[in-house]
Each structure stands twice: as structure tokens, then as C-alpha cells.
Write a structure and sequence with these properties.
This protein is mainly β. The protein is built from one helix and nine strands; from the N terminus they run αβββββββββ.
Length: 117
């Protein structure tokens, strides 16, 4: 009986900590720019930022905290910019429509991709 209760408790605990992926499209990045930094080379692995796009909601994962997100139009004008303080949803302006370049800058690295709104 104790084993069954322990198993049930462990299953409930595990189920409460699992996060479901939001619906929508995963934003993929096709290019990375680096700027020289004066602190030397990092030995940490490069973690590509993960975003999900569902309509005008961009959902940021925890590895994007501390990043700046910019959307650029076809003339490379910044039409939207925000800094990510915590993981979660970013509401994009509903006045935007079409294909935009997304640039996510974290430290000396900028990840570049495209999104369609």
C-alpha cells in the first residue's frame, strides 16, 4: 500500500511540473552574427533561443531571458523591440502584417530568422 501511495504521489508531482509546448509555430533561426567581446571566449555551449509563434503571440522559453528581440521590415527598419525579463508571452502589435526579420540578441550573439504575421 505504501508503494502505491508513493508512486501516486510521485506521478502527481511529475505531472504538475511538466510544461506543455504552446501551440503554434517554432521560430527557426537561419543565421548567427557575433560581435567581438573583450572578456575572452566563453566555454559554455551556445543555446539557440526558442520561441513559439501563435498569431500575434510570441512565447519565449527560459533560455531567452536577458535577450533583446527586434522585428525588422524589408527596409531593415526596426518596427518592434522588447527586452525579455522573464519567460512567457510577448504580444506583438496587431498592426503588423507580412514577413519580418526577427533578431534576438543575447550578449555578443545575434540570432536571425524570419516570421510571418
Amino acid at each position: 500500500m505504501k508503494h502505491k501511495l508513493l508512486f501516486l504521489f510521485a506521478a502527481l508531482l511529475a505531472a504538475s511540473t511538466i510544461k506543455a509546448d504552446p501551440e503554434g509555430f517554432i521560430v527557426s533561426f537561419t543565421d548567427v552574427k557575433t560581435t567581438p567581446d573583450e572578456g575572452g571566449h566563453s566555454r559554455s555551449p551556445i543555446l539557440t533561443p526558442v520561441f513559439y509563434l501563435d498569431g500575434y503571440t510570441l512565447t519565449a522559453s527560459e533560455n531567452t531571458v536577458g535577450s533583446t528581440v527586434e522585428l525588422l521590415d524589408e527596409d531593415d527598419n526596426v518596427v518592434f523591440s522588447t527586452y525579455i525579463y522573464i519567460e512567457g508571452d510577448i504580444q506583438l502589435p496587431t498592426t503588423l502584417a507580412g514577413t519580418y526579420t526577427i533578431e534576438v540578441t543575447r550578449g555578443s550573439m545575434t540570432f536571425i530568422g524570419e516570421i510571418e504575421l
